[in-house]
Amino acid sequence: MARQATRYVCSNCGAVSLKYQGRCFECQSWGTLEETRLEEEPKPGKGRSAGGPRASVVNLQAAAPEEFHRTVTGIGELDRVLGGGLMQASAVLVGGEPGIGKSTLMLQLAARLDPSKTLYISGEESPNQIRERAQRLGLKPENLWLAPEVRLESILETIEREEPALVIVDSIQTVYSGLYQSSPGTVTQIRECAGMLIQAAKRRNFVLMVIGHITKEGALAGPKTLEHMVDTVLQFEGESHQRYRIVRSVKNRFGPTNEIGVFRMEESGLEEVSNPSEFFISGRRADVPGNSVLAAIEGSRALLVEVQALVSKTNYSMPQRISTGFDLKRMSIILAVLEKRLGIETWGQDVFVKIAGGLKLVEPASDLGIAAAVASGLMNRPVEEQTVCCGEIGLSGELRAISDSERRIREAAHLGFKRIVLPEANTRELKPAIQKLPIKITGRATLQEALDAMGI
User: Of 235, 254, 273, at which residue does a domain stop?
Assistant: First the structure.
């Protein structure tokens, strides 16, 4: 029999330590080590035969192709994020803040999807509570079966007996196995229970949707290996008190990553937003300094996003730098380039940057939009009306070429903007169809030239 040993596992990254310490040695997080009992693997020759059954190997070209089918969910924005629909025998992890709409989206998915049977494993709500929510949303799913169960062995028996086409687990933090002494929600329980459910999905060819909690930092709770085990990771962005919700595919083995779907929370549940650009730039004031419009790329779609910057004299010895929806370190680099290369002094000024609508920008092409908003707010001159910008800023103040410039130009022209400012390298070989669009394409080589073109 394998011996049990006590180890301390980080709930943030999954690193294992022999003794307890306040800080994880791997991810440097404080207070995340949890006591766990692990079974030591038997050594070769002791309890495990070295000449056991061997794994079969197959040549890649000789392997028989297995046909997999996608199931269209009927929710267009969700299908876009998933890469076209739900893949057979796949595991999808859905994370987000409490009350942001995870369970609502799963209930709407179960109502619109038409498989032979959908099994909803509820560990947090009773069947009456789920029924009340379905009635409030006006949903009457006929093929939805509820199972208020948290014990893994009972859940697997139910799946074997009912043979569902879709299984929804709400949530994985409430599921536990009797084989382990640790309580539900610990690293060992989450990892092992998720692994057994994923194996069952692969073996019986059903779609597994797993809802997961998130930490206070906004990351998915549990070991990092949980995200590696599943096929797709979907994460809700934005605040739960806002009307709009953004679903982003952080990982997708069957489609593009960083794809987003935009929803609007109404009394009838989550409704799709067909044109997200109009939402992100709605209500903006072009005559106010500190605002700019950025042409961004999220996944396979182009979006126009409003960037807001507020620059004011600081009352502290160290100026404040606060960013919402944009990396704070990159913002510091942009401020340093403005001060060193353009002579725009940001020292002694508090700088607050916000991406309107709750979107999080990660691509380098958003640098120019941030710089234009900060420079406009600092110099108290608004950006020229009906002007869009995009571009990556180098440390010497140059504008570097970006990807997908033609899609950005098309989106700006579609929404009626008159000019787009982007790196000069992206304007040299444009297609004739792009040049004929009713928008002036302005290419600039440096940040100073780009700001001059925008009237700052």
Answer: 273
